[in-house]
Amino acid sequence: MFPAWGQLVDHDLTLTAETKDPETRKELDCCEGGTSRHPNCYPLKVPYEDPFYKDKKQTCLNLARSLAGVRPGCSLELHLISCSDHGDGERT
């Protein structure tokens, strides 16, 4: 039973709808763009002293939130999952 549950959770996470660049329709690059980044971009700054990334000379990790599905008249954003709408095991 645990492998089946793990597979369900895995598919809910990996099939999450990604935010795409509106112009190129490709994956967002949140480390580029300065202050004109997409609102779903949350780039992670890598400290210079980081033991893992120090030799790779990487100063930023690309992080974009999943695509938001905003309902009319609602100020809260729900994030879309293209496999199922929530991870409560509804498919089981």
Account of the 3D structure:
- It contains one helix and four strands.
- The chain is low in regular secondary structure and 92 residues long.
- The radius of gyration is 17 Å and the shape is flat.
- Keywords: Oxidoreductase, Peroxidase.
Quick structural overview:
With 92 residues, this protein is mostly loops. Helices cover 14% and strands 9% of the residues. It has one helix at 2-14, and strands spanning 44-45, 60-61, 68-69, 78-79.
- The value of Rg in angstroms is 17 Å
Distance between the termini: 10 Å
User: How many helices?
Assistant: 1
Q: Major sheet, described briefly?
A: 2 strands, antiparallel
Which structural class should the secondary elements be placed in?
little secondary structure
Low-confidence blocks of residues? none
Secondary structure elements and their pairing?
Layout: H1 2-14, E1 44-45, E2 60-61, E3 68-69, E4 78-79
Antiparallel strand pairs: 1-2, 3-4
